Amino acid sequence: MRSFSRATTRTSGSAIEFGGRWVMTAAVVAVAAGFAVSRLTAADSAVQTDQVASFMRAKLAHSQNVLEGLAVEDFDLIDKGAQQLSLASEDASWQVLQTEDYARQSADFRRSCDSLRKAAKAKNLDGAALAWMEVTMKCVQCHKYVRDERVPRN
User: Fold this and answer.
1) Do the Cβ atoms of 75 and 69 come closer than 8 Å?
2) Total structural domains within the chain
3) Is residue 62 part of a domain?
4) Which of 44, 84, 118, 119 has the fewest CB atoms below 10 angstroms from its CB?
5) Is 79 exposed, middle or buried (0-12, 13-18, 19+ CB in 10 A)?
6) pLDDT tens, position by position, for the chain (154 residues)?
């Protein structure tokens, strides 16, 4: 114990070396930890990007089902695609922004999907085609809104 006390109170020689090594070791550990955290953050970001891309592909597949249903007059396929799109809009992956406008646009989108489903159930091809145009417009408007909100304005 005495040698430890002496080593920490000395201002020259091995006490400075010991303190210098400790500071250097702490600095290396801090840099390594920072690097590891930044790599994990980058990995998390890449995983989130992959999840969003996967979710977007699923939305496109549902949209293709609706379009195919309209083209071949398959009202069950139209209804199923519209239902899947509506359900997707309630998924956490859909919620890319937390604003009132975004929530309103999502609700408008679901209402358009409901109109499409009603037309499909009524076997009204013209009504379904018109409702599909409305759903598509809601998609385009919302995607434009999201792009505008994510890009900083000058």
Assistant:
1) yes
2) 1
3) yes
4) 44
5) buried
6) 554 444 444 445 544 444 556 555 555 555 555 555 555 554 544 555 566 677 778 888 999 999 999 999 999 999 999 999 999 888 776 677 888 998 899 999 999 999 999 999 999 999 999 999 999 999 999 889 888 887 665 5
For 14, counting Cβ atoms within 10 Å of its Cβ (0-12 exposed, 13-18 middle, 19+ buried), the class is exposed
CATH code, domain with 41? 1.20.120.10
Radius of gyration of the chain (CA): 29
CA 6 to centroid of chain Cα atoms: 58
User: Which residue has 């975004």 as its token pair?
Assistant: 102
Q: Has residue 5 been placed in a domain?
A: no
Decide: pTM greater than 0.85. Answer: no
